[in-house]
Write a structure and sequence with these properties.
TIM Barrel, 308 residues, metal ion binding, alpha/beta, 38% helix, metal-binding
């Protein structure tokens, strides 16, 4: 059976340190957990940065510079730098690290959505840092903005360096946005679709929605013109990944997407989630793709052509 790419999203920007002691915050923690996730079987490492002193999301390239070279020296995994950053950042702030480091792969949200996680505030009994409570509770008015102009800017800016994209689609309309840019020639066949389920503001985590998203991709793009993967938030993570693997898709785990390893049990690390999905895939008869196999599947430029 075809190899399945395991991506691991190491820290993200929605979860805050008070939610889990395992969430990596400092450059040293991010590097360590990324390296361990790669050793466990993740071919792609999806990376955000945080301020070391309190875990606030940041787009500062100087912070990225403290962990990207460490990861590159210790593993051959594909480094995927976010262009989503955090909902509080401008497009320029979100792009800064990718522009400087020219990675093989970047995430790219294919539209604007409400992006909320405020219900989590009720489950936090004490806050580690002053910024966290307002950030989480205030997400009831967050809008992640990626207009057609924003998307075109990101595509045009990063494509010049040979960077390809993890096209994050949080709803069916985002697939049509992707089709629009394919028609314009800003996206080429062989692109990578990451279907996102269970974010408050995006498409719900119902298996019927997974089937419909996949069917829509096939109708819009043709079955052989794209690669696809699935991520699901929180408790939906593993059930959705099981279904995606059964359908022949790739999978993404990581503490950005879920802080848990099973119902009611916090994950000890990103690597623990990678190890779990790797065991599940093995039971299905699948093998995880190596970084080099992932590069071949996605048509990436190679780790020797990045600038970190």
């Amino acid at each position: 059976m075809a190899k399945i790419i395991i991506s691991c999203a190491i820290t993200g920007s929605a979860h805050v340190p008070s939610m889990s002691d395992a969430l990596p915050v400092t450059p040293e923690e991010i590097a360590s957990q990324a390296i361990d996730a790669a050793a466990a079987g993740a071919a792609i490492l999806h990376l955000h940065a945080r301020m070391p002193e309190d875990g606030r999301p940041t787009g500062d390239p100087d912070v990225y510079a403290r962990f990207l070279p460490v990861i590159k020296q210790a593993t051959d995994a594909v480094v995927n730098i976010t262009t989503g950053g955090a909902v509080t950042m401008s497009v320029q702030e979100r792009l800064a690290a990718a522009v400087r480091f020219k990675p093989e792969l970047c995430s790219l949200n294919m539209g604007s959505i409400n992006f909320a996680f405020f219900p989590a505030a009720a489950r936090i009994k004490s806050w580690k840092h002053a910024w966290e409570k307002d950030y989480v509770e205030g997400s009831d008015e967050f809008i992640f903005k990626n207009t057609f102009r924003d998307i075109a800017t990101i595509l045009e800016t990063l494509s010049e360096a040979g960077t390809r994209f993890e096209h994050e689609c949080y709803d069916v309309g985002h697939l049509y946005n992707l089709a629009h840019f394919l028609d314009r020639g800003l996206i080429k066949p062989g692109f990578f679709v990451q279907m996102v389920f269970g974010i408050l503001g995006g498409i719900g985590a119902d298996l019927d929605n997974l089937m419909f998203m996949k069917q829509t991709c096939d109708r819009l793009f043709g079955k052989d013109s794209y690669q696809w993967s699935v991520l699901a938030a929180g408790r939906h993570q593993m059930p959705f990944l099981n279904q995606a693997a059964l359908l022949g898709g790739h999978v993404r785990v990581g503490l950005e997407d879920s802080l848990f390893i099973e119902r009611g049990v916090l994950a000890a690390s990103n690597a623990q989630q990678v190890e779990k999905i790797k065991r599940i895939l093995a039971e299905m008869g699948h093998e995880p793709a190596t970084p080099e196999e992932a590069r071949a599947i996605l048509g990436l430029k190679g780790g020797d052509r990045v600038e970190f």
